[in-house]
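ok so for the tutorial part 2 we go from a plain amino acid sequence to predicted structure tokens. step 1 is just haveing the sequence, like this:
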Amino acid sequence: MEPSPLELPADTLQRIASELRCHPTDERVALHLDEEDKLRHFREHFYIPKMQDLPPIDLSLVNKDEEAIYFSGNSLGLQPKMVKTYLEEELDKWAKMGVYGHSVGKRPWVIGDETISGLMSDIVGANEKEVALMNGLTVNLHLLLLYINLSFFKPTPKRYKILLEAKAFPSDHYAIESQLQLHGLNIEKSMRIIKPREGEDTLRLEDILEVIENEGDSIAVILFSGLHFYTGQLFNIPAITKAGQAKGCFVGFDLAHAVGNVELHLHDWGVDFACWCSYKYLNTGAGGLAGAFVHEKHAYTIKPALVGWFGHELSTRFEMDNKLQLIPGVNGFRISNPPILLVCSLHASLEIFKQATMKALRRKSILLTGYLEYMIKHYFSQDKAESKKTVVNIITPSYIEERGCQLTLTFSIPIKYVIQELEKRGVVCDKREPDGIRVAPVPLYNSFHDVYKFINLLTSVLGSVET
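step 2 — the prediction. this is what the tokens look like for a chain of 467 residues:
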């Protein structure tokens, strides 16, 4: 199954089809890819929803006992089967020994987050002391940006802007607005938003770098998504980081849609700070425990403006003398004790990632999403000879270096009907305003045959529209 390092997904599909003596769109290609997939067994580590349990399903159109086609891991990942086991372990420990659970067991509650931080640091490419597991994404973002000349946003009369991409996730947008308001800054002047060129959906790297070069002296913080939630564009994190730091800016990233999706090397890239949630590709459930990163070069110079008990060194934390011994780096930003039940679901998922490895998952993801792209272009691209045919456009970049597993689709017809009919047939993906349907085949639990079945169902849905 595995393509050579220089082989594009389309070339792999053509090669396999040639070996099987069929067309790349033939079902045999999908079945062969699944058979050769060395990661296919990881699907068994997750609960895959059944058709009959989905609220929008039309049971007259499906086999109720079949598994759904779940392409919404970019919104909420599926549940690892070990989550229930780990939760029951901690509930059982609480029931049997009460307060003693703080210091004994596989996950002593007082250091529950620290027992799995090494697993998390592997996924984001960081040293273990550069990663903290705490709070939710936006809370972490606020803590990292908070002022008093300690954290990353320290505006001056000459350097006061925050640079971000257009249509950033609303939570990021609101966080930045409120941080600027906290400093009494004019939002319109201080919130520098870079938009795609006229008629384009995604940003060009050269345009981002040009803004940094021309306006960098007035930019305090560059805060980009690692991967844009709507378009699916993967930004060039090392290039943006290097350019921003060369102009004296702090550079940080919201990695909500990148973590667990693409390979990250935050330490080696020199990123100043980052934060992420865990309920998408990291499969921890709604509101799962979030993460934060601060590069070790800032361990003794960047400090939290707000502190709490769990930012105090563990060795003297329980002396209770109210003399703060702040942990250097990101762990000093921790305020409260770790929520152990949330630690459990993250632990269950991170163990799967350790077995699979991000390198292998990314390799499969490139081919899996490439297969989806190939099939969409084959069946639904613009054809002037068939003016009544519904056209499906992919606004996500076609270069594999500029995307993760998600493709965002737009249609030449209103998408409300399309998404409703797909949901009736057991396809789980999501509609995002203004006119996109996001489809994310996740390499941990999605198969090539899932993609094949999705294309068949999409053909059926669009065919019914056309007639």
